Amino acid sequence: MSFCKDDKVKDFKEHFCKEAETIVTDDFPKKIIQLDELLKSDMFQCDDLTQMHMDLNVPIPDPVLVNSHQSDAKRRKLDHSLDDIQGELTIQGTKVYLNPAGKVTCNTKLTKIIEVMKPEIRTLVEKCNMLKMWVQLLIPRIEDGNNFGVSIQEDTLGELRQYESEAAAYLDQISRYFITRGKLVSKVAKYPHVEDYRRAVEEMDEKEFISLRLVCCELRNSYAALHDLIVKNIEKIKMPRTNNTESLY
């Protein structure tokens, strides 16, 4: 029974190593070309960043002049009329004036770009994770001497970990964008007369577009750097130690 399990583990390792080599030799070059074309496509070619702006659809209520000598009853009547005109949403005692549809949408232009980039980020993370396991399986048992090839394997593992970590951080960056933008939009809804909040949302959208373009560029560069590193050292990665000692004499 144990022999059967050992054979299955051995087959798994052989299949895993072949698949990992295919990722390096076939998938990485394809990804480099694909991301380079995506970077040069119309999606990221935007010289005027104002094209990334979206109408928040949060109306600015008309100002109402209230005389300080007016009675409280008149003031309450004016407040009530404002609520009827703008549409009032009370959240924890705070009045927020919304558009008639009652919804402030996301920036659909950036959302489309994010929907394209998220699978690419996830793919790089998964491939780096797989290649880490591949190199780990190729590391020989610990012995004294002749460890130059092992050091190359360890350096390759370190590079794979770094690129995997950086790619995972891009996903955090996307979630932080939506959280921060949501807070700013809520400020716009709460204080519709304050122009700075509206401008802050526009600046954030422009910044996110630049960040997403940079992410696409970094993903392409990561594939190119990893492909170059592994291909140049493929012999030492696959066979870190040799039995040939003729060069020592």
UniProtKB/TrEMBL annotation:
One of its GO terms (molecular function) is endopeptidase activator activity. InterPro entries: PA28_C, PA28_C_sf, PA28_N_sf, Proteasome_activ_PA28, Proteasome_activ_PA28_N, Proteasome_activ_sf. Residues 6-63 form the Proteasome activator PA28 N-terminal domain. Residues 104-246 form the Proteasome activator PA28 C-terminal domain. Keywords: Proteasome. It comes from the Eukaryota. Belongs to the PA28 family. This is Proteasome activator complex subunit 3-like isoform X1. The gene is LOC109474604.
